[in-house]
UniProtKB/TrEMBL annotation:
Annotated ranges, domain Transposase IS110-like N-terminal: 3-162
Pfam families, per the entry: DEDD_Tnp_IS110, Transposase_20
Taxon lineage: Bacteria, Bacillati, Actinomycetota, Actinomycetes, Streptosporangiales
UniProt domain Transposase IS116/IS110/IS902 C-terminal: residue ranges: 271-355
Organism this protein belongs to: Streptosporangium algeriense
Stored NCBIfam families: transpos_IS110
Record-linked InterPro entries: Transp_IS110-like_N, Transpos_IS110, Transposase_20
Annotated protein name in UniProt: IS110 family transposase
Length: 405
């Protein structure tokens, strides 16, 4: 039997369908244990006396949460359908553009009935991998939030206090936030003494404190265009709020970093992942979290590359054929993989040679880096499949032969 589950925050519209496409049941169920019990009863009633022999396939537009975990625990085969795929499939069933929650449940049920072989089942990741995913995603989200708030702080300072931008290189740094919190206006900053500036630098464990303090003081006391006193006071209030937010974000990012390293260090695949060039505890944890650790999820290195979004897509029509970069991908995963590729340039001679080869062929920096990331994903897949550590000679045999020659 096939079940389409159109989920919302507080309810689920479901439809149960048989192999011929005939609707067996439909209902709106509440979120939670009661709704799950009613779904099991609905499926059991539709299956009748053959309930123990019937395989149930479920299509739903998410791959996480207690509801999905309960479906997997019940023995159902769950397919996480991309909403874009569901929308395109809906267009095949009618041209009126009509849409409803019950209609979406029908579309999802029909998708798993006719195209289950082309859909990806929800991965059976281990609890260790799930724990790594929770902390790494939150850690990365806080880093993104810190970047956004730092940009807001930069824009505010540029509008009324450009001297601060000349004095401070890193707006996220603890000494910068301490001084801006103490002196948020140009007038107050100009009155900061070398002792006050040096104290903030020492607390942040800066080197060459005396020279840096003198440089900062000179920049803060230099002539710059600004705003009137009333407007500057208004901006100062906003800056103090942003400074407070950034201070808290710095503290929580540091705390979560320890949690990421702790959870990742307990995973059995940590040693293999850490052996890869360019991957440390944080990047390695992100890669593990987004790929998951279900051994049957990726049938080949190509499948892992396709999921990563590093492999190109081919568009061919008649005599025209083009290989293009993928723009639909897991943003968290591609960010980690490209960062790994850039870092690997300094840590692996084979990676560096491969990158230089792509540049020689005419690829730009980003394209060459993406191709290197694609190659590194294939190497990681082989290491995980064979449970072996990274070996430079094995990973880049052509480069090793050229060096020997």
């Amino acid at each position: 039997m096939f079940v389409g589950d159109d989920w919302a925050e507080d309810h689920h519209d479901v439809e149960v369908m048989d192999a011929s496409g005939r609707r067996l049941a439909k209902a709106r169920l509440p979120e939670g244990a009661d709704g799950m019990a009613r779904l099991h009863a609905l499926v059991g009633q539709a299956a009748g006396d053959d309930a123990d022999e019937v395989e149930v396939l479920v299509g739903i537009e998410t791959d996480r949460g207690p509801w999905v975990r309960a479906l997997v625990a019940a023995g159902y085969v769950v397919y996480a359908v991309n909403p874009l795929q569901a929308a395109r499939f809906r267009d095949r069933l009618g041209v009126s553009r009509a849409k409803s929650d019950a209609g979406d449940a029908h579309v999802l049920a029909d998708m798993v009935r006719t195209h289950a072989h082309e859909l990806r089942p929800v991965a059976g990741d281990s609890p260790q991998a799930e724990a790594v995913k929770v902390v790494t995603r939150t850690h990365k989200t806080l880093i993104w939030e810190r970047t956004r708030h730092a940009q807001r702080l930069r824009h505010a300072l540029r509008d009324y206090f450009p001297a601060a931008l000349a004095a401070f290189d890193d707006l996220n740094a603890g000494d910068t936030l301490a001084l801006l919190g103490k002196a948020p206006t140009p007038q107050m900053a100009a009155r900061l003494t070398l002792t006050q500036i040096s104290a903030a630098l020492k607390k942040a464990r800066r080197k060459n404190v005396a020279d840096k303090a003198a440089t900062i003081q000179a920049a803060l006391r230099a002539d710059h265009l600004g705003q009137g006193e009333l407007v500057s006071a208004a901006y100062a209030s906003c800056v103090q709020a942003l400074v407070a937010i950034l201070t808290v974000l710095n503290e929580q990012i540091k705390t979560l970093q320890g949690q990421v390293e702790a959870h990742f260090g307990e995973h059995p695949a940590a040693e293999i992942i850490l052996s890869q060039p360019g991957l440390g505890p944080i990047l390695g944890a992100r890669v593990l979290a987004e790929f998951g650790d279900d051994p049957g999820r990726y049938v080949s290195a190509k499948a892992r590359k396709n999921y990563a979004g590093t492999s190109p897509i081919t568009r061919a029509s008649g005599k025209k054929k083009a290989a293009l970069a993928r723009f639909i991908h897991n943003d968290r995963l591609i960010d980690a993989l490209l960062t790994q590729a850039y870092s690997a340039l300094l840590r692996s001679s084979g990676a560096r040679a491969y990158y230089d080869k792509q540049r020689t062929r005419g690829s730009g920096h980003n394209a060459a880096l993406r191709q290197l990331a694609n190659r590194l994903v294939g190497i990681l897949h082989g290491c995980l499949k064979t449970r072996s550590l990274y070996d430079e000679t094995t990973a880049w045999p052509n480069h090793a032969e050229n060096v020997a020659a």
